[in-house]
Amino acid sequence: MIPFLSSSSHKAGQGLVEYAVILSLVAIMVIAVVSVLGPGVGNIFSSINNSLGGTGGYTAAYADWHDAQNEFCAGQPSGTAHNMYHNLDTNLWVAGPAGGTPPPGYIDQTDVLQYDTCP
């Protein structure tokens, strides 16, 4: 028999293909689970971080005020009041609890934007 047509080489290749299929199915499952649970886990960590108050409840600084608002509102009930602060020198935005004072270098722009509650 011709060596490259022997059945033993086909069996070894078949096993390798089976491992590749199993590995790809596991990867698809991991991606599905992370995509479903990822935002919820992120919201929990954001809520814990905001409750610790190390930054006065302010978000990270963002170039777009929508991003700062979205970070602040993640995990907050709809209608939660907040303030938007703008740094004119860096053109960055942060969001913080309503009634707070602006972080150093920021001015309160809540009245200008007229977005003072979480959607």
Word description of this protein:
The chain has 119 residues and is mainly alpha-helical. The chain is 50% helix and 12% strand. The chain has helices at 7-52, 65-73, 110-113; strands at residues 82-87, 92-97, 107-108. A three-stranded antiparallel β-sheet has the order 2-1-3. The chain is elongated and about 70 Å long. The termini are far apart. The mean pLDDT is 75.
Q: Helical segment tally?
A: 3
Q: In percent, how much strand structure appears in the residues?
A: 5-15%
Radius of gyration: 26 Å
Q: What order do the strands of the largest sheet run in, or round the barrel if closed?
A: 2-1-3
Instruction: Name the average pLDDT.
Output: 75
Task: Summarize the model shown.
With 119 residues, the chain is mainly alpha-helical. It has 3 helices and 3 strands.
Which key phrases capture this entry?
50% helix, elongated, 119 residues, 3 helices, mainly alpha
Give the helices and strands, then pairings.
Blueprint: H1 7-52, H2 65-73, E1 82-87, E2 92-97, E3 107-108, H3 110-113
Antiparallel strand pairs: 1-2, 1-3
